[in-house]
Design brief:
Largest sheet: none
Strand content: under 5%
Distance between the termini: 19 Å
Helix content: over 70%
Number of strands: 0
Order of helices and strands: HHHHHHH
Shape: elongated
Radius of gyration: 16 Å
Structural class: mainly alpha
């Protein structure tokens, strides 16, 4: 999550806010509203990690799957919002990560909690690696 958040996107967002004719309005939109889903996604991910560590081998319940997969999904949605607002370009890597998380959510009934958590982590890793490679 750190890599996705800090790699280039936040730098570009800050530059856009500084160069805008009304920087306070742009900064308010990007760094207040845009960051709400990011922060909530991080918190949900932490709750999901607690669930997955305390019940790793049990089959995932809807509640567990919702936070284990929903936290990273909300985080990616917030990052898409901020990056789209900053550069007017849809980060395809994040859309791919959301699609992978959607597939994972669709299969949660068949997976133990640790596999769900591992899949969510891999989805974020793929999105981060893809974005890094695309921006090089």
């Amino acid at each position: 999550m750190w890599w996705i958040y800090f790699h280039r996107g936040q730098e570009v967002a800050a530059e856009k806010a500084e160069k805008a004719s009304r920087p306070e309005s742009v900064a308010h939109n990007l760094f207040t509203y845009g960051h709400l889903p990011i922060v909530v996604g991080i918190i949900l991910t932490a709750v999901g990690q607690d669930f997955s560590l305390s019940h790793a081998e049990k089959d995932a319940s809807l509640k567990t799957a919702s936070v284990v997969v929903g936290g990273p999904a909300l985080f990616l949605c917030g990052n898409i919002w901020v990056k789209l607002s900053a550069v007017s370009r849809l980060p395809v890597s994040h859309i791919a990560g959301l699609m992978a998380l959607g597939l994972l959510m669709a299969a949660f009934l068949f997976l133990p909690t640790y596999a769900l958590s591992l899949g969510a982590t891999m989805s974020l890793l793929v999105a981060a690696t893809w974005e890094y490679a695309a921006l090089r």
